[in-house]
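Researcher: We plan to redesign the surface later, but first we want a full-length starting point. C-alpha cells attached.
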C-alpha cells in the first residue's frame, strides 16, 4: 500500500484495518511516523508534590503536567471527581481549594501544594452526610449521577459564597455545572434546602 496511485476505496479499507495508525507516515508528505513522534516528545523529570486532600497529606511523584484531577483519580484513587469534558466547561470535576470551587481538570497538581483540597469524599463526617448530600437524595436531584459530585461541590461553594438567596440566583451561580439529564429543578431545590440547614457551609 505504498503506491502513489492508491485509490480512495483502498485507502479507506486500509484505514479500517490498521486504525489509521500508519497512514500518516505513508500518505502524508512530511508527516512523522508514530514512533518518531513519540521519540520526539520532550521528557519531564518527576516532581515531588505534597497534596493536602480532605485533611490528609499525600506525597506523590508526578509528571509536572499532571492535572489535579488526574492526581486525585489516578494516584490517590479518589474517583468521586469525574472526568467530563476536560476543558473546564461541564463542571463534573469540581473540587474545593481553600473553600473555593475549582475545575480540577484545568489545575496542575504541582500548583495545588500548600492548599486545602476538598473532594466529594471529604464532605461527609463518617456516616453523617453533608446537608447538601442529604438534600440531593431527598430532592431526587440526580439521575445518571455522573455530574452529581461536581454539582454538590459547586453547590457547597454556592451556599458558602452567599449565592443561594433565590432559585434564579442559584441557577446563575451554578451555570458552570452541566447536568445532561436535566435534573436542574431538583438541584436548585436541594441547594435551597441545604442553605437553610445548620452546618451547610462545612467543607466550603
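Model: Full-length starting sequence:
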Amino acid at each position: 500500500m505504498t503506491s502513489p496511485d492508491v485509490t480512495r476505496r483502498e485507502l479507506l479499507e486500509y484505514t479500517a484495518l490498521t486504525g489509521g495508525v500508519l497512514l500518516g507516515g505513508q500518505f502524508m508528505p512530511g508527516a512523522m511516523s508514530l514512533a518518531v513522534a513519540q521519540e520526539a516528545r520532550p521528557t519531564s523529570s518527576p516532581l515531588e508534590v505534597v497534596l493536602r486532600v480532605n485533611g490528609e497529606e499525600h506525597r506523590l511523584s508526578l509528571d509536572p503536567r499532571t492535572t489535579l484531577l488526574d492526581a486525585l483519580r489516578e494516584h490517590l484513587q479518589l474517583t468521586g471527581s469525574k472526568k467530563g469534558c476536560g476543558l473546564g466547561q461541564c463542571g463534573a470535576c469540581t473540587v474545593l481549594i481553600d473553600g473555593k470551587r475549582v475545575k480540577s481538570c484545568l489545575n496542575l497538581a504541582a500548583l495545588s501544594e500548600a492548599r486545602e483540597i476538598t473532594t466529594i469524599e471529604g464532605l461527609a463526617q463518617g456516616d453523617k452526610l453533608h446537608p447538601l448530600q442529604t438534600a440531593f437524595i431527598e430532592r431526587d436531584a440526580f439521575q445518571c449521577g455522573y455530574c452529581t459530585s461536581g454539582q454538590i461541590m459547586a453547590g457547597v461553594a454556592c451556599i458558602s459564597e452567599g449565592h443561594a438567596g433565590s432559585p434564579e440566583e442559584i441557577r446563575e451561580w451554578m451555570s458552570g455545572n452541566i447536568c445532561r439529564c436535566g435534573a436542574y429543578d431538583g438541584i436548585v431545590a436541594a441547594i435551597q434546602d441545604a442553605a437553610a440547614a445548620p452546618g451547610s457551609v462545612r467543607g466550603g
